[in-house]
Design brief:
Helices cover about 35% and strands about 25% of the residues. The protein is of the alpha+beta class. It has six domains: about 1-110, Beta-Lactamase (2-Layer Sandwich), CATH 3.30.450; about 115-245, PAS domain (Beta-Lactamase), CATH 3.30.450.20; about 260-360, Beta-Lactamase (2-Layer Sandwich); about 365-435, no CATH class; about 450-610, Histidine kinase-like ATPase, C-terminal domain (Heat Shock Protein 90, 2-Layer Sandwich); about 630-750, Response regulator (Rossmann fold, 3-Layer(aba) Sandwich), CATH 3.40.50.2300. A five-stranded antiparallel beta sheet has the order 2-1-5-4-3. The longest helix is centred in the middle third of the chain and has 47 residues, at about 365-410. The protein is rod-shaped, with a radius of gyration of 52 Å. It starts with a helix and ends in an 11-residue tail after the last helix.
C-alpha cells in the first residue's frame, strides 16, 4: 500500500490528487486490477473502521462493477458494503478507470447522518422491542438546534403507551413531552438535564400526566454523548415504574401497619440473622430497632420454656410448616409473662424457603381474661348454691338465735343458764357471720354505698391487725397524697382489706419480712384490667414471704379451697373478697411479687368515674307504728320462725295471725278485712312467693304496712318491693329489738331501714 501511494504522488489533472482525495467528504478507494488497495482516504478509514485494508474484498463483496473495461471510463451502481459488526447493506458506488494508469478510483455516497442514526435506532428498537414492551419503556434522543435550544429528535414507539402521545405528534410539535411532566416533579427533570450537560449520567424518577389525565411514574436514564469535551447529544431511556411504585407504596403501607402492630414481628434469614423487626418486637427484647439489625435472634434472652422447644421449632420448619405455641416469656428485669408465638417459613420466587417470620404476642391480659371468665363462671355456679344455703341457714338461725336471746333475757344474769345461752348466742353469731360470708360470695350482701377515702380506711385496718403476733414483720406503706375518693360499702371493703392484710401477715415465716402497702392513681386501660377503663385507684398488698406454688395459684380464688388445717378456715376469704370487689365493679388481681412472695392488687373506679345512683327517699311520711292489741300477720314458710315471731309479738302485746305461704296469708287478710295493722312477709315461699303476695296485698290496701323478711340479703328483688311501697327490710337472723322497733314505728327512710 505504501508503494501505491508513492506511485500516485504528483499525478496531474487527468489523474487524482491524493491531497484532495484525503479531504473529500466521501470515502475514496484506489486499487489495481488484482483488487489490491493502494489508497483509502480519511472518510473511508472512518467509515470502514480500518486503517490498512489490503484488498477490495476487505471492504466490499465481489462484484464486476469494480472492474470496468478499457472502453468504459466510469461505472455506477450499488455495491454491498462490509462494515465490522453490521449486517450487509448496499450503497451507491462510482468506479473510475484512471487514464493511463492501471488503477481504479472508487467513490460511494454515505447516507444522511440523521437518517443513519434513525436507521440505527430503528434497528436497535426492532431488536429491543420485545424487551421494551415487556418493561413498558421507550428510547429518546435530544440534540441542540442552532446552538440555542435542545429539542427531542427521536422517540421509539413505546412512547405512546406511556404518555398517550405518538412519536409523530411529539416530533411535529402537536404534543410536548415536557408539558406532561407533573408540576411538582420539575426539579427532578432540571437536575437530570443540568447533569447531562456537564457530561454526567443521571437517573431520575418523576411523574407524567397521560392524555387521559392519569398519572404515570417513570424512571429515566440520561446518557450524554460527547465529542471531545462537548456534549453533542443526549440519549435517554424512559421506563414506566407505576406498578413498581404502587408495590413500593403498598410495602411502605404494610411496613407502617406492621410497625404499629401491638404484636412483635421479626423477619430472619436462614442463619437466624434479623433482617427486620418492628418496634413491638424490639420492646420484647428491650432493644431499639436499629440494635436488632443483623443480630442473631438467639443472641437475646429466651425463657427456658422456649429454649426447650427449639428442636420442635426446627423440626416444623424443616417440614415447611408453621410452629405455634404458648409459653412463658421474660419481661424486662427477668419477670415472667405469658406469650403466644409463631415461626413461619417464607418462600422465594423459586419456591424455596428464603427467610422466616417470627411473631410474639403478650397474652398475659388474655390469660387474665380467660381466668377471669372461668372464675366468673365458677362464681355464678357457687353463688347460686351459696345464696340458697345462706337463705336456709338464716331461716334456721333466725329461730335459734331469736329463741336463744328470748330465753337469755329471762334468765338470771348470774346463772349457769344465762352463760350457756350467752355462749350459744356467740356461736350463733359466728354462724351468722359465716352465712354473711356466703352471701358476700354470692354477691348478695347488703351494700350501703358511700364515698370512701381509701387511705384513711387502710390506716384504720392496719391499726386493727394483730401485730403483736408478728414482731419481726416490718410495715412499708406508700399512700399517694390527694387520692381520689371511691364509692362503695365501707364495711365490705374493710372486710376485703383485712383479709388481704391478714393473709399477708400469716404468709411470713419466723424470720419475718416486710409487708408493703401502696395506693396510687392509675389509668385502668394502661394496667390491662379486663372491662375497666378510665381513672381508677390501685391498692396493693405485697409480702416477701415464700410465695405461692403453681398448684396453689391455680385454686387461689376457688371457694372452699384452703391451705390452713386449723379447721377454722373454710376457704371463703379470697373468694368472698373477689365477690365483694366484683360487686363494686372493681378487680382483684394476684401476681408474684418481684422481690419474692405474693402481690395482691385491688382496682376501683374513682368517684368521678362512678355511675352509682343516689339513694331515693321513698318515705313520704314516717311510719307511726302498730298500736298494741292490733293484729300482725306473719307469713313465713319456716315453722320455727313463725313460732318465734308469734311468741315475741304476743308477749309484746300484739295479736298474731300465722300463714305458711302467700296464699294462706292473702286468705287471712281478705277474711280479717281492715283489722290487720302490719304484715311480716317472707320473700321466698312455696305456693305463692313474697313478691306476688305483696302485689296482691298492696293492690287491695296501698297503705298497709308491709315489712319484708328474708334469709337473703337486701338484693334487687327486695329493693324492687321497697321501691313499690314496702316499709322496710328485716334480715334473718334478726334481733328482738329490730323486730319490735320496726313494728312499733321507725322514722328512718323506708328503703334504708336495717338493724
Amino acid at each position: 500500500m505504501e508503494k501505491g501511494l508513492d506511485n500516485a504522488k504528483g499525478w496531474d489533472a487527468e489523474g487524482v490528487n491524493l491531497e484532495v482525495c484525503e479531504v473529500l467528504p466521501c470515502p475514496v478507494v484506489l486499487y489495481d486490477r488484482q483488487g489490491r488497495i493502494s489508497f483509502l482516504n480519511g472518510q473511508g478509514r472512518l467509515f470502514f473502521q480500518s486503517e490498512t485494508p489490503k484488498t477490495l474484498n476487505d471492504l466490499f463483496l465481489p462484484s464486476p462493477l469494480f472492474f470496468p473495461s478499457s472502453s468504459e471510463s466510469v461505472r455506477e451502481g450499488e455495491a454491498t458494503v462490509l462494515r465490522r459488526g453490521e449486517p450487509f447493506r448496499k450503497l451507491p458506488v462510482q468506479v473510475v478507470l484512471l487514464p493511463g494508469r492501471d488503477l481504479f478510483c472508487c467513490t460511494f455516497s454515505l447516507p444522511d447522518p440523521n437518517e443513519e442514526r434513525r436507521r440505527r435506532w430503528e434497528e436497535s428498537e426492532r431488536r429491543l422491542r420485545p424487551l421494551l414492551e415487556s418493561v413498558n419503556a421507550f428510547f429518546w434522543q435530544m440534540e441542540e438546534k442552532q446552538g440555542q435550544r435542545w429539542e427531542y429528535t427521536l422517540f421509539t414507539e413505546g412512547v405512546k403507551t406511556i404518555t398517550g402521545l405518538s412519536s409523530d405528534e411529539l416530533l411535529s410539535g402537536k404534543g410536548s413531552l415536557v408539558e406532561t411532566v407533573f408540576e411538582e416533579d420539575w426539579a427532578a427533570l432540571e437536575y437530570a438535564f443540568l447533569g447531562a450537560m456537564q457530561g454526567e449520567r443521571r437517573e431520575v424518577e418523576y411523574r407524567l400526566q397521560r392524555t387521559d389525565g392519569s398519572l404515570v411514574w417513570v424512571k429515566e436514564l440520561w446518557i450524554p454523548v460527547l465529542e471531545g469535551e462537548r456534549v453533542i447529544r443526549i440519549d435517554g431511556l424512559c421506563l414506566d415504574i407505576t406498578e413498581e411504585k404502587r408495590r413500593e407504596d403498598d410495602l411502605k403501607s404494610l411496613r407502617a401497619a406492621v410497625d404499629q402492630m401491638e404484636e412483635g414481628v421479626a423477619v430472619i434469614d436462614k442463619e437466624g440473622r434479623i433482617l427486620y423487626a418492628n418496634p413491638c418486637y424490639a420492646d420484647f427484647v428491650d432493644r431499639s430497632v436499629e440494635e436488632l439489625q443483623g443480630r442473631k435472634i438467639l443472641d437475646f434472652p429466651l425463657s427456658e420454656e422456649v429454649l426447650s422447644s427449639l428442636d420442635e421449632i426446627r423440626q416444623a420448619l424443616r417440614q415447611g410448616k408453621t410452629w405455634r405455641g404458648r409459653y412463658t416469656g421474660l419481661r424486662e428485669g427477668g419477670l415472667p409473662r405469658e406469650e403466644e408465638g409463631a415461626v413461619s417459613p417464607v418462600r422465594g420466587v423459586n419456591g424455596e424457603v428464603a427467610s422466616y417470620v417470627v411473631t410474639r404476642q403478650d397474652i398475659t391480659w388474655k390469660r387474665d381474661l380467660e381466668v377471669h371468665a372461668e372464675r366468673s363462671r365458677r362464681f355464678e355456679e357457687v353463688s347460686h348454691l351459696a345464696a340458697g344455703l345462706a337463705h336456709d341457714f338464716n331461716n334456721i338461725l333466725g329461730g335459734i338465735l331469736g329463741y336463744t336471746e328470748w330465753f337469755r333475757k329471762r334468765a338470771d344474769p348470774g346463772s349457769r343458764e344465762y352463760h350457756v345461752l350467752e355462749e350459744m348466742e356467740r356461736a350463733g353469731g359466728r354462724a351468722a357471720r359465716l352465712v354473711s360470708d356466703l352471701l358476700g360470695l354470692a354477691r348478695e350482701g347488703k351494700m350501703e354505698v358511700k364515698p370512701i377515702e381509701l387511705n384513711s380506711l387502710v390506716l384504720e385496718i392496719l391499726g386493727k391487725l394483730p401485730w403483736k403476733g408478728f414482731p419481726k414483720v416490718l410495715l412499708d406503706q406508700s399512700l399517694e397524697k390527694d387520692l381520689p375518693l371511691v364509692e362503695g360499702d365501707r364495711r365490705q371493703i374493710s372486710q376485703v382489706l383485712y383479709n388481704l392484710l391478714l393473709n399477708a401477715l400469716e404468709a411470713f415465716s419466723e424470720k419475718g419480712g416486710t409487708l408493703k402497702v401502696r395506693t396510687r392513681s392509675v389509668k385502668l386501660e394502661e394496667e390491662g384490667i379486663p372491662a375497666m377503663k378510665g381513672q381508677g385507684i390501685s391498692l396493693s398488698v405485697a409480702d416477701n414471704g415464700p410465695g405461692l406454688s403453681e398448684g396453689i395459684r391455680r385454686h387461689l380464688f376457688d371457694p372452699f379451697f384452703t391451705t390452713k388445717v386449723d379447721g377454722r378456715h373454710l376457704g371463703l376469704g379470697l373468694p368472698t373478697a373477689m365477690g365483694i370487689v366484683q360487686n363494686h365493679k372493681g378487680h382483684l388481681r394476684f401476681r408474684d411479687n418481684p422481690g419474692g412472695g405474693a402481690l395482691f392488687e385491688l382496682f376501683f373506679l374513682s368517684l368521678t368515674e362512678s355511675s352509682q345512683e343516689s339513694a331515693k327517699d321513698l318515705c313520704e311520711a314516717p311510719f307511726r307504728g302498730v298500736e298494741k292489741e292490733s293484729k300482725v300477720l306473719v307469713i313465713d314458710d319456716e315453722e320455727l320462725v313463725r313460732d318465734f315471731l308469734d311468741d315475741l309479738l304476743q308477749e309484746a302485746g300484739y295479736q298474731t295471725l300465722l300463714a305458711a305461704n302467700g296464699k294462706e296469708g292473702l286468705d287471712l287478710f281478705l277474711d280479717q278485712g281492715g283489722q290487720i295493722g302490719a304484715v311480716l312477709l317472707d320473700i321466698k315461699m312455696p305456693v305463692m312467693d313474697g313478691k306476688e303476695t305483696f302485689r296482691e296485698l298492696h293492690a287491695r290496701d296501698p297503705r298497709l304496712p308491709v315489712f319484708l323478711i328474708s334469709g337473703y340479703a337486701q338484693n334487687g328483688e327486695v329493693q324492687e318491693l321497697l321501691d313499690k311501697g314496702a316499709l322496710g327490710f328485716i334480715h334473718k337472723p334478726f334481733r328482738i329489738e329490730e323486730v319490735l322497733t320496726k313494728i312499733g314505728g321507725s322514722h328512718c327512710q323506708a328503703n334504708l331501714c336495717s338493724s
